[in-house]
Amino acid sequence: MMNIPFLDLSRQYLAMKNEIDAAQARVFNRAWFVLGEEGEAFEHEFANYLGAQHGVGCGSGTEALHLALLACGVEPGDEVITVPNTAVPTISAISFANAVPKLVDIDPVTYTMDVRQVEAAITPRTKILLPVHLYGQTADLTSLFALARRHNLRVIEDACQAHGATYGSVRAGSLGDAGCFSFYPSKNLGAYGDGGFVCTNNPEIDQRLRLLRNYGQTKRYYHATKGFNSRLDELQAAMLRAKLVHLEKWNESRRQLAQRFNARLEGLPITLPMQAAWGRHVFHLYVIRSAERDQLCSFLSARGIQTIIHYPVPVHLQEAYRDLHIPAGALPEAEKAAREIVSLPFYPEMREDEIEFLVTTIREFYQKAS
Ligand SMILES: Cc1ncc(COP(=O)(O)O)c(C=O)c1O
Questions:
Q1: Three-class SS of residue 318?
Q2: How far is the CA of 132 from the centre of ligand 1 (A)?
Q3: Mutate to test the pocket of ligand 1, among 58, 88, 163, 182 (most ligand atoms within 8 A of CB)
Q4: How confident is the model over 38-81, as pLDDT tens digits?
Q5: Rg of the chain, C-alpha, whole Å
Q6: Cα–Cα distance between 113 and 134 in angstroms, integer?
Q7: Which CATH architecture has domain 10-104+111-244?
Q8: Are strands 178-182 and 79-82 parallel, antiparallel or unpaired?
Q9: pTM for the complete prediction?
Q10: Distance CA 86, CA 162 (A)
Q11: % of the chain with per-residue pLDDT over 90
């Protein structure tokens, strides 16, 4: 028995305590907390890292998607094509924009949008294609962009789980009309609270985003449009700046850890994460698939190992989205995946003894089962 939490963020903090504490002190001493130097510097630094021309900090990943949809010209009743196996906020953002989510099934191997199904879902009301780069890996984008061009649609990338992932040599988020990020604390680049970001190469979208996140203000108390309050505060921006310089190293650790997990779990009747040839997976989550998923989770839990399912109920089967009128069975791959997937504890600061206990316990489960 060993207590293995799904994630322990205190280890990352302790390893860089001086940098985080200094960033925090810098903001307190300057005593400027919203829309200031730290936010501006972070916007430049993260946009630059992504290879995008512009970047706008905002309040969360959900709001990044909401603001991006509006800035890309979505109007009430417009349709947005996305997937059912995502964090529900992807869909909430579409609802906030008064648009209609249209769901296509996933590719069962990568768990990302099955692009072969997209064309059939396009109607005259379709405005946006919104692929989700799930678990740290991008969707297959080449044919999706070809479709977008052919049908004159915009592409918004949900890169909330894909900080630093690539499609080819290009970083996730920077390919579409807009790319949206979450800095929820557990992300590969996480804040100490909520935060979000939209990057774009389109100066008009950038300008609209800046207005929308700050009450539609052009200058203090002059409002050009109806806007919101959704800003990345100075404290979070300062700490994200401190963390951004480590992101590549952390992503590389995640990739190496995934290789070690793969090697130790090979040969068991479980499906290991697939790394698509089209890009670099940054393993926000390490997700395996097993026909005995629930029994495996109980076995691990009884031995002190915490697991989480991302996500147990696809969006169309959630109570909140009954009004989509998509019946059970309509999106079979997403539904099957929801019954079989589980995310294991997985982060760069995991200790050797924890890794060893985790893989040994999984192997033990299958020895008992056989
Ligand atoms: C794929 C995806 N989209 C959207 C979100 C929403 O981000 P946030 O929690 O920052 O609002 C998340 C994070 O939970 C996510 O993983």
A1: coil
A2: 10
A3: 182
A4: 999 999 999 999 999 999 999 999 999 999 999 999 999 999 99
A5: 21
A6: 9
A7: 3-Layer(aba) Sandwich (3.40)
A8: unpaired
A9: 0.98
A10: 13
A11: 99
